[in-house]
Design a protein that fits this description.
InterPro entries: GrpE, GrpE_CC, GrpE_head. Pfam families: GrpE (PF01025). By secondary structure, the chain is of the alpha+beta class. The chain has 6 helices and 8 strands. Strand 6 and strand 7 form a beta hairpin.
Length: 245
């Protein structure tokens, strides 16, 4: 009886194991692919199916976990990395420093050019007026020549040949002095008959003269000179006085 019962149980188990009804069903959807598998009643196949399903679910959950773990924000935009943020701040600081240095460079360049122009003008001015002191001393010699020549009368020149030759020699020496001064930019002021100019002339006296224009120069007491268009010495003159005065 026991033998018969054990044989019956064995047959029943064998029939359940050997007879299987395969069934088709779709597996869990995995991003980017879809597959079909056979379902079986065997424990090994069931466990493998469950592990595949769990793996697919974990893969689907990874992006969400990454978003909630600090790699994203509520708006869906990725969070800025601390190192990237630090490098960005350094770059902005460098840009500001560069703009500031360019501004300083432009100002320094403009100041340098202005200094060059000023220095150039000062050097040229020093060259033009370096002879100012020497020229003033030479003007006194010319004045002495003029005084000597003006005191010689025409009758004396006609009567005495030696005085005439001396007069011509002094006159030639004065002309050489004046030409030499002209080469160095020293020009004579010729005010006779011109309108009185306080920038060029120095009035020493005034006399009313009906036949001449009031305010004009009618007499030159001392000749004036300019050095490169700058007054070296004003001319001392006599001016026609106005009748209303």
């Amino acid at each position: 009886m026991h033998r018969t019962l054990s044989q019956s149980i064995r047959r029943t188990i064998q029939s359940r194991v050997s007879v299987t009804t395969p069934a088709f069903r779709y597996s869990v959807r995995v991003p980017g692919q879809q597959f079909v598998r056979f379902n079986s009643t065997k424990p090994e196949e069931k466990e493998s199916t469950e592990s595949t399903t769990n793996a697919a679910e974990k893969e689907n959950q990874k992006p969400e976990e990454q978003t909630t773990n600090g790699k994203g924000n509520e708006s869906g935009e990725p969070a800025e990395h601390p190192e990237f943020k630090e490098l960005k701040e350094k770059l902005e600081k460098k840009d500001k420093d560069l703009a500031l240095m360019k501004n300083h460079y432009a100002k320094a360049k403009a100041d340098f050019r202005s200094l060059q122009e000023t220095t150039k003008k000062e050097v040229q001015s020093a060259k033009d007026f370096a002879l100012q002191k020497l020229a003033k001393d030479l003007l006194e010699s010319i004045d002495n020549f003029n005084l000597a020549l003006d005191h010689v009368k025409e009758d004396t020149l006609k009567a005495n040949e030696e005085v005439k030759n001396l007069y011509e020699g002094v006159d030639m020496t004065r002309n050489v002095f004046e030409k030499t001064l002209q080469k160095h930019g020293i020009e004579k002021i010729e005010p006779l008959g011109q309108k009185f100019d306080p920038n060029l002339h120095e009035a020493t006296f005034e006399i009313a003269q009906p036949d001449k224009e009031p305010g004009s120069v009618f007499f030159v007491q001392q000749t004036g000179y300019t050095l490169n268009n700058r007054v070296l010495r004003p001319a001392k003159v006599g001016v026609v006085k106005s009748e209303d005065k």
